[in-house]
Design goal:
Structural class: mainly alpha
Radius of gyration: 17 Å
Strand order of the largest sheet: 1-2
Shape: globular
Largest sheet: 2 strands, antiparallel
Length: about 200
């Protein structure tokens, strides 16, 4: 798990703005003759659903001791390209360089990650699922966990042409198969239950 974060936390503000900006919206994209913004946004939603892979602990009883945010932080493997994007957004809104964001700052950053397609209500409901109030200080690692989770949840709420939904990776799908059965006898909070079944 730690390998996914290698070299990230120590360099939150060490990035090339031009390179990272290109991750959000590639240069000259709108100049392409066949460019369609709606199709491009939809393709980004599909891609964002795969921004992280989630795992379950070998001992499911571990979940009873974790908060939803602790679970997302410890059992998600976030791809490095999305980490670069999250790094750009986090440092943009952490203007005072305090190494944390307040809820309003985090929501503004998340809306930017979602290209403006996510509403305040949707994002606040996601933070509520994670038991985060407006006093919680969101550091970079937590922000990455929240951002990746929000991308997965909102992407899975999107019904694509033909009625298909975004799919989990094969490894993750195997982990989460028969989740209800795997959770039998495990005392988790209602919000942890919502988070696990939202993935």
């Amino acid at each position: 798990m730690d390998s996914a974060w290698s070299g990230t936390l120590a360099s939150v503000y060490d990035y090339d703005p031009e390179v990272c900006a290109d991750i959000i919206f590639p240069k000259n994209l709108q100049e392409m003759p066949d460019f369609n913004m709606a199709d491009w946004v939809q393709s980004r939603i599909l891609a964002s659903a795969q921004s992280a892979r989630y795992e379950l602990p070998m001992d499911m009883q571990v979940l009873a001791k974790l908060s939803p945010l602790e679970y997302l932080t410890e059992y998600a493997i976030i791809c490095k390209r999305r980490q670069a994007l999250y790094k750009l957004i986090f440092s943009k809104y952490d203007k005072e360089r305090k190494n944390f964001l307040r809820q309003s700052q985090a929501i503004a950053g998340l809306k930017e990650i979602h290209l403006g397609s996510a509403t305040d209500k949707e994002l606040i409901s996601i933070l509520w699922m994670l038991n985060l109030d407006d006093q919680f200080k969101i550091d970079f690692r937590f922000f990455c966990s929240i951002a990746a989770f929000s991308e997965r949840v909102l992407a899975r709420w999107v019904i694509l042409p033909g009625g298909a939904l975004t799919e989990k990776e094969t490894i993750e799908k195997a982990d989460f198969t028969n989740l209800s059965h795997k959770l039998e006898g495990v005392k988790i909070t209602s919000n942890m239950h919502k988070v696990l079944f939202a993935l």
